[in-house]
Amino acid sequence: MDVESVLTQMEELLARASRVPLTSRVVVDEAGFYELIQALRKAMPGNLGEASRILRERESIVESARREAQSMVEQAQVYAARLVSESQVVRDASARAERMLAEARDRALEIHEGARQYADRVLEDLERELGRVTDNVKRNREELLGRAMRAAASHSGASGRTG
């Protein structure tokens, strides 16, 4: 007999019991009630053992789920930390790249300015040299022109005397 059927019989025994007038009490067949208690005790150990097994199984399942959840949380934390780390690496690399670009731009400006100054100095030197050459050319032309005039004058003076 199982626990449910014994409990049903106990309910039936109480329902058939005689009532004590003006109270909520009933008179129950004592021997029948003790029989049902004994049947209940016989049915209970099997059910209690099964209930204990089910509880242990439930506790094992809950513990396994807790461990799995903890493992998932730890994995998520490791993953999040890795993402943060990778994100930091990317931010660091981007910042470094920006610094390198800024340094390259600054260096290019310096080189450009240096090249401009060098070209200006070369052109200034060239201008001075060309000024000297131009002055030299003018002097030489003037000297040449002066000689030509003196030669012409001396040639016209010599021809006027001999004639």
What can you tell me about this protein's structure?
The chain is mainly alpha-helical. The protein is 90% helix and 2% strand. It contains 2 helices and 2 strands. The chain has helices at residues 3-16, 30-161; strands at 18-19, 26-27. A two-stranded antiparallel sheet has the order 1-2. Strand 1 (18-19) and strand 2 (26-27) form a beta hairpin. Helix 1 (3-16) packs across helix 2. The radius of gyration is 61 Å and the shape is rod-shaped. The model has no long low-confidence stretch (mean pLDDT 87).
Succession of helices and strands? HEEH
Instruction: Output mean pLDDT.
Output: 87
Q: What is the terminal separation in angstroms?
A: 178 Å
Please state the CA-atom Rg, rounded to the nearest Å: 61 Å
| Major sheet summary line | 2 strands, antiparallel
**Which class of secondary structure composition applies to the elements?**
mainly alpha
What's the helical proportion of residues? over 70%
Number of helices: 2
Shape: rod-shaped
> What are the low-pLDDT stretches, counting only 5+ consecutive residues below 50?
none
**Strand tally, please?**
2
Proportion in β-strands = under 5%
Q: Please give the order of strands in the largest beta sheet.
A: 1-2
For the record, the count of structural domains works out to 1
Present the secondary structure layout.
Layout: H1 3-16, E1 18-19, E2 26-27, H2 30-161
Provide the descriptors you would attach to this structure in a database record:
single chain; 163 residues; two-stranded antiparallel ribbon
